[in-house]
Amino acid sequence: MTPFSAILIGNETLALHCGEALLGRGHALAAVVTRHPDVADWARARGLPVEVPGTDLADRLPEADWLLSIANLDLLPETVLARARRGAVNFHDAPLPDYAGLNAPVWALLNGEARHGVTWHMIADRIDAGAVL
Predict the structure, then answer these.
(1) Which of 85, 122, 78 is nearest to 7 (CA)?
(2) Cα dihedral angle (21, 57, 81, 42), rounded to 10 degrees?
(3) Bridge partners of 67?
């Protein structure tokens, strides 16, 4: 696999673990965007640029091949998405389209699902509506 660069956006430790997996496979993180202190500390310890979300985020981000939104509930404006040359990908904690929206694992449990999964999908104009990877 050809190494790529990514902007990682996430506010839970899942983002940290995904970032670690990317780095371990030889990919580069151009920036990490988070409000989560553990994720920020992890990124700084690896010498990665850390940014916090905000209205001027796009101006503070470098370009990268991909933008990866992992455990992130912020809607990302087009100006931020445009920092990714190849596209923007979102992690969703349930199978789409059946479990779009928030608290999807809880809804699956309440519905008695025997199996569950996650979805990686392209970020589109509507929430959880992009092409499933």
Answers:
(1) 85
(2) 0
(3) 7, 88
Question: pLDDT by residue (tens digit) across 7-47?
Answer: 999 999 999 999 999 999 999 999 999 999 999 999 999 99
Q: What are the distances in angstroms from CA 105 to CA 12, 86, 92, 101?
A: 16, 30, 10, 10
pLDDT digits (tens, 9 = 90+) for 108-120: 889 899 998 988 9
Q: Is the peptide bond before 37 cis (omega within 30 degrees of 0)?
A: no
Contact 50, 44 (CB under 8 A): yes
Question: How far is 33 from 83, CA to CA, in rounded Å?
Answer: 13
> pLDDT (tens digit, 9 = 90+) per residue, 63-108?
999 999 999 999 999 999 999 999 999 998 888 888 778 888 888 8
Strands 64-69, 119-122: pairing is unpaired
Q: In angstroms, rounded to a whole number, what is the distance separating the alpha carbons of residues 17 and 28? A: 14
